[in-house]
Specification:
This protein has about 350 residues and is mainly beta. It has a single domain, classed as AttH-like fold (Beta Barrel), CATH 2.40.370. It is built from one helix and 23 strands. The strands form two sheets. Strands 1, 2, 3, 4, 5, 6, 7, 8, 9, 10, 11, 12 and 13 form a 13-stranded antiparallel sheet that branches. Strands 14, 15, 16, 17, 18, 19, 20, 21, 22 and 23 form a ten-stranded antiparallel sheet that branches. The longest helix has 12 residues, at about 1-15. The protein is globular and about 60 Å long.
Length: about 350
């Protein structure tokens, strides 16, 4: 009942145009720890953590994501239970020994002490699911129905500002943009439990934090996104926004070497080329799960840890997408591990 109500509220919020959300403009300085926290004046926000883990049971991939959505229709309601902000969370565990990923989701209205996103630093929680920054490091804790994640994530490199010093465009129309930073090469330690067994894990992860009020143009249906930690210490991010005809409307990429030298690319210098598709036996949706990503003429090959990494989040955010662990091979034999996100293949992505 609660999820059905929240889905209705989200549907209403997505067609509201009168409320004056804060806008994303170039030139804003991203400051820490404040901007690691929530930005309630903006329409939508997310904290994404994806990574690869090593364990005695073999390699694993994981995702922990929290979304915050502003609901201005509830501002006039003085009740502490008024759904002024809605929080959603997705979690997934990819195990090549299993035929498909394990996944779970949460959704709730903001409620102090139980469901909230701090405005002073990263501290977002829905009951016993949480992502919290304590000093330099993060703690991600998820008790899902079929698995448990208890992970500590330690930064090993500086924050990576995407786009133009954190101003990341999504369209030729400069209003369609977000504030966006990443923390690649996070060192991971902790425990994963599934099937009644708990195992110690180590690994590497990538954190994205992004907030905006208007992202996709009406002609756009979704995006393809890659975040990759290379074994030599480099990091690589690339995305493209797709139109209804499947063509790229906007593309951008950022690479940073182990010494901290950063390069940004846009336009035709960033190309996504599907090499193999996979069709979901549950939803009938076809995703390009094996992909080549060319950046400035250099091609990176992406191979999924397993093909069935479809996330059905229609009970929370109303979305259906593929988000999966991939192995990365570079043009000169470089290797790495990352995550590939594919949205808008079932239907147009709606906020």
């Amino acid at each position: 009942m609660r999820r059905a109500l929240l889905f209705f509220v989200v549907s209403v919020v997505c067609v509201v145009h009168a409320f004056d959300f804060a806008t994303v403009t170039p030139g804003r300085t991203i400051e820490f720890p404040r901007d690691a926290g929530s930005h309630p004046d903006y329409r939508i926000e997310w904290w994404y953590v994806t990574g690869h883990l090593d364990s005695k049971a073999g390699p694993l991939g994981f995702q922990v994501t929290f979304f915050r959505l502003r609901n201005p229709d509830a501002d006039a309601n003085p009740s502490r239970f008024s759904p002024k902000e809605l929080l959603f969370a997705h979690a997934a565990l990819s195990d090549p020994r299993k035929p498909r990923i394990l996944q779970d989701q949460r959704s709730a209205r903001s409620l102090a002490g139980l469901v909230e996103a701090s405005t002073t630093d990263t501290n977002v929680a829905i009951d016993d699911w949480s992502l919290q920054r304590d000093g330099r490091g993060y703690a991600a804790r998820v008790r899902a129905e079929t698995f448990v994640l208890d992970l500590a994530l330690e930064p090993t490199q500086a924050v990576l500002l995407q786009g133009e010093r954190g101003y990341s465009r999504k369209d030729a129309d400069a209003r369609r943009a977000s504030y966006y930073y990443s923390e690649p090469q996070l060192r991971v330690r902790g425990k994963v439990a599934m099937g009644g067994e708990s195992v110690e894990v180590t690994g590497v992860a990538w954190l994205d934090h992004e907030w905006s009020s208007e992202v996709l143009a009406p002609e756009a249906v979704g995006w393809d996104w890659l975040g990759a930690n290379l074994d030599d210490g480099r990091s690589l991010m690339a995305f493209r926004i797709r139109g209804s005809d499947g063509a790229t409307r906007w593309a951008s990429a950022t690479s940073r070497d182990a010494a901290g030298v950063t390069r940004t690319f846009t336009g035709d210098s960033v190309r996504f080329t599907p090499r193999e598709t996979w069709k979901s036996p549950r939803t009938g949706t076809t995703y390009p799960v094996t992909m080549d990503v060319a950046i400035a003429g250099e091609t990176w090959h992406l191979e999924p840890l397993l093909k069935d990494q479809e996330l059905d989040a229609r009970e929370s955010t109303g979305t259906l997408y593929w988000e999966g662990a991939v192995r990365v091979e570079g043009p000169h034999g470089e290797r790495g591990r990352g995550y590939l996100e594919l949205t808008g293949y079932a239907e147009r992505l709606r906020f």
